[in-house]
Specification:
Radius of gyration: 23 Å
Helix content: 25-40%
Strand content: 15-25%
Number of helices: 18
Oligomer: single chain
CATH superfamily of the largest domain: Metal-dependent hydrolases
Length: 464
Amino acid sequence: MLHELKKTLSLSAALLLTFTGCGSEPAPGIAIRNVTVIDAAHGMRARQTVIFDGDSITYAGPASGAPKARESIDANGKYLIPGLWDFHVHLTYDDRFTAIMPDSFLRYGITSVRDTGGLLPELLPVVEDMRSKDVPAPRVYFSGPLLDGEYVVYDGAAAPEIGTQNRTAEQATQNVAMLKEAGASFIKIYEMVSPEVFDALVAAAEEHRLPIAAHVPLALTASSAGPSVDTMEHLRNVELDCAANWTELHETRKELLKNKDGISGYALRSALHGLQRLPAITALDEQRCDYVLSTLTDTIQVPTAGLNTILLNPMFERDDWQEALSHMPDVVREEWAELPRWLPADKADRDTTFARFTMRMIGRMNATGVPIAAGTDTPIAHAIPGYSLLNELEILVQSGLAPLQALEAATVTPARFFSLQDTMGTISTGMRADLVLLDANPLDDINNLRRIAMVIAQGAVVLN
């Protein structure tokens, strides 16, 4: 467990850590000296010293002018980045993972997470525990339940219960007020809401000063709903809006949403995506897509690329998968040791149309100036907490982001969603002490993020 590792330094780390002895009285804090600092705001800075005291960086600048500190780490040849975010997690979706998630995130340098859907009775005790000072844990921000429509996709029947009904605008307004009172950090709008309920949720969130995450509601389009929210998840429904026949597809969708057969929200949502996603991708119109993306330049996209491209980039076929899986609970290791039943063993039988669309769209959005943030949907679809975020960043780079832009997607952009960019996401004096020390340069190869020497979360040193 990482909180146990905190108490006993490993041999390699012990060699790094020295005490400042003679001379003038040292200032409080721990200094990381002679390190190369990398963040998305300032790029790469060599021969730096960063001093942190508790949960605050008290000095970040040239090593030659740094003050003394109580303790000092010689980090010559190493690289220091801000702690990473996983911007789309579900802490209570699968209770086999809930207890191990904080340690698993920290193991891979994730020092902040955004929980994007869980019922408050299950979620609030987890948040309270993570925010306690008893053991190290990532900072946690949460939305509460998915705010769905008359039909709820995640209703506890076909899928775990993490959604709640918003049949009317009045009910929607009341639910947002309740979430604000409960301490929610933002709200999450889901796919089955009507246009009227969507407008009510947006208005209520603005009244209560809550940021908005959203799936594009099926009754709306990406270009109509996107500008009203702060993040869009999974690139879902972007493909329909980019199709040459988008009006026809959307009229068909709105007719089917009347749900004359009264099927469940889960079945209805699944049927619509199954019916329209691939035909919409096939009918993509470049000029129409240019317009759609032009409406989203102020809306952060959280593509969950690992999830969307799982048929093209299955993480459980990576060389390091078994080692990552070894840290999971026994029941998960046994279940995930084999390829999932839904994955064709023969790669030729895997339909990668949506996966390739996702990667092209990520690159296109990035080139257009649409902001991108890194989230994984862990633990859904074999996404090991923490490990899956490093895979996500690798796919973002493969999709066209530069390594520094991928770091931005997991540091500065998530902080900006919560208006925390003045205290989180970069390495400078006065910022929070969430830091990851690496043995190799992630700008040379984004996979060097896996070469972690040390993690510092809220000023607590955690060693791998």
